[in-house]
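Budget justification aside, the reviewers requested a transparent look at the raw inputs and outputs of the sequence design task funded under Objective 1. We therefore reproduce one unedited record. The lines immediately below are the structure tokens for a 206-residue chain.
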């Protein structure tokens, strides 16, 4: 940790770590920033500690002098100390628990599924495609996949994007058609009751 900080050294623009958030996620963000700024091993150690706050800062202050000889040692101590804050990583089975709800738009279902899929980095394109399609409600997009199956999730996303765009373009026309149909229906309403009443109650004429 004896490396001198260069005059043009930039500190990473990441949130402070106070000991409550996911320590692995914080470390990953810092290492990405360190790679971008080309920190040396010693500078990594000196800059990493500047991202600490509250509980994390107190933990660092209590370390004995010389406890950290390299950034690799620093990251190991850090992860060990705050291991309890790690998020529970979902497995591929978690993808199968995501189902499209009744009346849920395709776009909303895709967003929910993607949120879970990001937490399962080990899931392959094929697994994600299968899980997504399994609980897709019967509709136009489902029928599209049934006619032309897709094995890659990225390809499903591409087709879904086209479908969602098509629905948006079609919606104004559909609304206009429904409005015209309602107007036509209102114009016919005054006539129909008279015919119905005369047919059902012929005695009322007298």
């Amino acid at each position: 940790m004896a490396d001198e900080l260069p005059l043009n050294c930039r500190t990473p623009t990441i949130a402070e770590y106070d000991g409550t958030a996911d320590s692995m996620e914080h470390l990953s963000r810092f290492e990405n920033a360190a790679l971008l700024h080309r920190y040396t091993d010693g500078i990594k150690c000196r800059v990493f500690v500047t991202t600490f706050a509250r509980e994390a800062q107190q933990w660092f202050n209590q370390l004995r002098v010389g406890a950290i000889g390299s950034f690799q040692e620093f990251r190991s101590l850090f992860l060990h100390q705050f291991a309890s804050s790690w998020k529970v990583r979902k497995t591929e089975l978690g993808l199968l628990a995501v189902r499209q709800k009744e009346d849920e738009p395709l776009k909303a279902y895709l967003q929910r599924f993607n949120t879970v899929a990001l937490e399962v980095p080990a899931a392959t394109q094929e697994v994600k495609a299968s899980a997504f399609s399994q609980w897709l409600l019967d509709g136009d997009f489902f029928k599209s996949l049934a006619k032309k199956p897709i094995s890659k999730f990225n390809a499903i996303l591409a087709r879904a994007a086209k479908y969602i765009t098509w629905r948006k373009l079609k919606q104004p026309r559909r609304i206009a058609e429904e409005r015209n149909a309602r107007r036509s229906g209102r114009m016919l309403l005054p006539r129909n009751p008279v015919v119905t009443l005369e047919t059902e109650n012929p005695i009322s004429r007298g």
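The CA atoms of residues 60 and 174 lie 63 Å apart. The longest helix spans residues 153-188. Computational costs for records of this kind are itemized in the attached budget.
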